Amino acid sequence: MSILIKGALLRGEVTDILIEGKYIREVGPSLTVTADSCLDGTGKAVIPGFVNTHTHAAMTLFRGFADDMPLMPWLEEKIWPNEAKLTIEDVYWGSRLACLEMIKTGTTTFLDMYHKHQSTALAVEEMGLRATLCAVAFDHFQPEKAEKAKAYIRKSFDESMGYSKRIRYALGPHAIYTVSGELLQWLDEFANENQLPLHLHLSETATEVENSIRQFGLSPVRYLYKLGILSPRLILAHAIWLDSDEIRMLADHGVKVVHNPLSNMKLASGMEFKYNEMRDAGVVVGLGTDGCASSNNLDMVEAMKFASLLGKSWRKDPEAMPAGEMVRMATANGAQILGLNAGEIKPGTLADLSLINLKSPAFTPNFNLESNLVYAANGSCIDTVICDGKILMQNARVAGEEEILEKAAAVAYDLMKR
Ligand SMILES: CSC[C@H]1O[C@@H](n2cnc3c(O)ncnc32)[C@H](O)[C@@H]1O
Ligand SMILES: [Zn+2]
Questions:
Q1: Ligand 1 centre from 162 Cα, in Å?
Q2: Which ligand is nearest to the CA of 113?
Q3: Does the beta carbon of 113 sit less than 6 angstroms from any atom of ligand 1?
Q4: Domain 50-337, CATH
Q5: 282: CB partners within 8 A, 6+ apart
Q6: Can you tell me the ipTM of this complex?
Q7: Which of 289, 363, 392, 414 holds its CA 20 to 30 A away from the CA of 229?
Q8: What's the pLDDT tens digit per position in 123-139?
């Protein structure tokens, strides 16, 4: 199957784009080719699909359920007791709702860490997105729970062989305060043997750092170094409370970092994400929304704006975190973190892209597309989404959206009654 996008704005030029199968084949003005279907790009701009590199998709079910709390009471008193009740059906409908929201706001790929990830895999499969799904691991420092976690990882890894090529398997130890060093080392070895990403929350709050020093005698990054698990496969979510030596250690080991400005602000975990220092040290930084209970949506356009404005504010530097770098953080950097040949519109890359509707106040006048996208727009500017060479949304409509809203709301209300 082939798709020809005619006359869309790309890097300031009116351009045609030919997609063949799952790849972008040609990019240029007035292509003289035929295709199975043609999309009119007039009045639209093409951008790479966003890569949300840290979320918990099915937490859409907890949107607006527990707000205005700090991280640990929020997790321990509100979120974890309700997550313990989740069924595979709940996670499936929560994930379908997440996929719908991501498609509607231009995300084509996400990195997820959540319970019952098999249900998320089914939702992703059906909705047509691309995802890397972590099998979660907790042991709460209890050896019998560590053995259970290992058995779950071995089994779910074998099952993941049946997933489509759009879905990749990864390992998701939750955090250093819920997973023992012994289990972290075992997971790192498993990840190494099987070439898998390892995704972990780290240095999210000042309390986490204080507790790490008290419990392990080391700050979180130094603790991971001592365990021997800093590696290019490691993807850290948050990483707010780092000193300059820790940033150097991450850079030296090729560790990737995901910035989550909305949840960092809403849970008041910390503002001073050291993007400039990480970028200058050579750490690849991606952007995430985190889950809908702490962000409270999956809109990467909004996340770019918050990242930029937060970075400018705490540094008191209006030149910090400019729009162009935010777009790269949300696209090419995310693709690099997940090892995908995507995140840029050029021949040979995966056909994961969106068309923005420029006929709106946010894009009028359109002196600078990236500026308008980051500072003026929100995710509702997205008109068309293509992932893996297939159209997932056209004219801002996704097939079956009413049923998803209805079913997801029903399981969310039912969960709270259980
Ligand atoms: C291992 S499944 C994911 C686990 O993480 C919880 N979670 C959601 N947001 C955060 C956050 O900001 N920091 C730490 N943990 C978080 C989620 O509720 C699941 O239990
Ligand atoms: Zn998270």
A1: 27
A2: 1
A3: yes
A4: 3.20.20.140
A5: 251
A6: 0.98
A7: 289
A8: 999 999 999 999 999 99
Mutation to probe ligand 1, out of 55, 117, 145, 201 (largest number of atoms < 8 A from CB): 201
Domain boundaries, the chain: 2-48+346-401, 50-337
Pocket of ligand 1 contains residue 172 by CB under 6 Å: yes
Please give the Cα distance from 62 to 67 (Å, whole number).
10
Q: How far is the CA of 44 from the centre of ligand 2 (A)?
A: 33
What gap in Å lies between CA 289 and CA 264, rounded to an integer? 10
Question: pLDDT tens for residues 232-289?
Answer: 999 999 999 999 999 999 999 999 999 999 999 999 999 999 999 999 999 999 999 9
The C-alpha atoms of residue 415 and residue 101 are separated, in whole angstroms, by: 21
Q: Calculate ∠ Cα 119-108-60, nearest 5°.
A: 45
Looking at the structure, give the CATH architecture of the domain made up of residues 2-48+346-401. Answer: Roll (2.30)
Compute, in angstroms, the gap from residue 6 CA to the centroid of ligand 2: 39
- The encoded tokens of residue 199 equal 């995704």
Judge whether 188 and 200 are in contact, CB under 8 Å. no
Rounded Cα distance between 55 and 50, Å, is: 13
